[in-house]
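Troubleshooting log. The previous structure file for this entry was overwritten by mistake, so regenerating from the original sequence record. Sequence copied from the archived sheet and checked twice against the printout by T.R.
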Amino acid sequence: MNQAEEPKQSSQKDRLFVEAIGRAFRILETYSETAEPRSLAQLAAASGLDKSAAQRIAHTLRNLGYLEHKAGGYVPGSRVLDRTFDYLRANPLVGRAIPILTELRRNVMERVDMSLFEDLTLLYAVRLQSKRDSFYAHLIGRRIPTYCTAGGRAVMAFLSDEETRDILSRSDRKKLTPRTTTEIPKILDHVKRAREMGYATSLEQVYVGELAVAAALKDKDGRPFGAIHVAGSLGEWQLDDFERRVAPLVVAAATAISF
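Regenerated output below.
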């Protein structure tokens, strides 16, 4: 489990917390670290449970459809997708955003994403693909770091300096590509520019060959809760040209979706 996904409650702090349910979700959350099947021993080690507890929980989750057993071990089951559907259907933001994002995708002819801000990470809730995307670029539910992404910079531009520094100090600021910015002063320079421009840019921060423009989604009090991203390829764009073409459209879409 990574630092952005630690439980918000524990039995030591909350007498209503059900440890058995918490342990079950710890099993499911181990798959955030790998796409490979996991044996019972691997599930136990990754979740911090003993093998007997992992076996009972895995058996229960398999019977309920939240785990499946394949060659090599257990993998997430299809029932997990049902809960994703429930979340997206119940979230009014998604319903309001889809027509606006679809129009943005039609205008820019590049990948369009909407992410939700969750402290150290942004979580993709909507992804409209482009003509050249990789498999992972299509998947909702993927998390990306706040510290080095265009969406993260756009969000931090509407936080206080103290909040931004807190996020950066707690982030695992590692290089995802040779060009990923990890130094706090340099990241703050990008955030400052985003404040001035009303949008943020990034260049090969998460993927080699990718550039992006993003604008923050804000609530009625001006607090950021997510971002709209448009991503393009260095094989087709220079960052300055991409920014001039895309930024006004991204800002307009974010303004239309914001509360």
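Residues 239-257 form the longest helix (19 residues). Archived copy saved in two places this time.
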